[in-house]
Specification:
The protein has 7 helices and 4 strands; from the N terminus they run ααααβααββαβ.
Length: 181
């Protein structure tokens, strides 16, 4: 596989993937527990071919297999997308990598933070997605964030989603990607 700066670029990866790879990914998006034998019947190739291609996809494309729970059944009432605006000093080259590493370590210590990344747009530099049992649980995380990382933050803007109401129009799922053309 060709690499650029140590990372596989999406464009290069897409060019090297075969139609069969996309069919396999589509089936895995629908149900990651699907057996190679069942997938072979669905896709119309042999089971060893599926096993071989799936192994390659697991090496190059698939980060991990996971579930998407019904959060409310596990006692989580809130999903929070927190938008972070960093101070200019936090973005300065001097010491940036060490600040980034410390932020990453802080995020990894909080198991209810399910994603965090830098981002661009709307004058926001980073975001995190977290799940919480209640507002007090979120408030504790926000207070820890202010206490531990506040010197580097200009603003913290939470978007709070109530998971207990039956108002979700489209639940979180990757199976929709299987339908993408």
């Amino acid at each position: 596989m060709i690499k650029a700066d140590g990372l596989i670029t999406c464009e290069i990866l897409m060019k090297n993937m075969k139609n069969l790879d996309f069919q396999i990914l589509s089936e895995l998006f629908k149900n990651s527990k699907t057996s190679d034998r069942k997938m072979a019947k669905t896709v119309g190739v042999s089971q060893p071919t599926i096993t071989r291609r799936r192994a390659q996809l697991e090496k190059d494309v698939i980060d991990s297999y996971t579930i998407i729970p019904r959060w409310e059944k596990l006692g989580y009432k809130l999903l929070v997308i927190t938008l972070l605006k960093l101070k200019i000093s936090a973005l300065a080259k001097a010491g940036y990598e060490s600040r980034r590493k410390m932020a990453s370590d802080w995020m990894m210590k909080h198991s209810n933070i399910i994603m965090q990344s830098p981002c661009r747009g709307s004058n926001i530099d980073a975001f995190m997605i977290s799940v919480h049992k209640d507002y007090a649980d979120y408030d504790q995380l926000a207070n820890e964030l202010r206490r531990d990382k506040g010197e580097h933050l200009e603003s913290i803007q939470p978007l709070i989603v109530n998971l207990t109401e039956n108002r979700v129009t489209k639940p979180l799922s990757f199976k929709y990607l299987a339908e993408a053309k």
